[in-house]
């Protein structure tokens, strides 16, 4: 059950980072790098989540998908 909560929290963080990048892109007219940093964080979180899912599947923390 804990792994499912971690996965949901990671997905929420990824979506939050994506929307913060969208906000910085639309509102920041000075040309700062906040959009790039927010998208970099999103990519890092996505890769971390993917690795976490692979490890959880390997150790049997998440089961086989249902048909």
What does this entry look like structurally?
This protein is mainly α and 67 residues long. The protein has one domain (2-21, 32-58). The chain contains 2 helices and no strands. It has helices at residues 2-27, 34-58. Helix 1 packs antiparallel against helix 2 (34-58). The longest helix has 26 residues, at 2-27. It starts with a helix and ends in a 9-residue tail after the last helix.
Briefly characterize the structure.
This protein has 67 residues and is mainly alpha-helical. Helix content is 76%, strand content 0%.
- What is the ordering of alpha helices and beta strands? HH
Could you tell me the mean pLDDT? 90
User: Outline, from the CA principal axes?
Assistant: elongated
**What structural category do the secondary elements indicate?**
mainly alpha
Which strand-content bin applies to the residues?
under 5%
Low-confidence stretches: none
Largest sheet: none
Radius of gyration: 15 Å
Beta strands, count: 0
- Helix proportion: over 70%
Tally the helices: what do you get? 2
Q: Roughly how many Å apart are the termini?
A: 21 Å
Q: How many structural domains are formed by the residues?
A: 1
Quick tags:
67 residues, mainly alpha, 2 helices, 76% helix, 0% strand
Write the SSE topology.
Elements: H1 2-27, H2 34-58
């Amino acid at each position: 059950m804990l792994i499912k909560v971690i996965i949901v929290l990671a997905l929420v963080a990824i979506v939050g980072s994506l929307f913060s990048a969208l906000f910085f892109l639309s509102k920041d007219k000075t040309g700062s790098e906040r959009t790039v940093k927010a998208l970099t964080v999103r990519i890092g979180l996505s890769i971390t989540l993917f690795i976490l899912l692979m490890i959880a599947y390997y150790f049997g923390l998440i089961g086989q998908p249902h048909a």
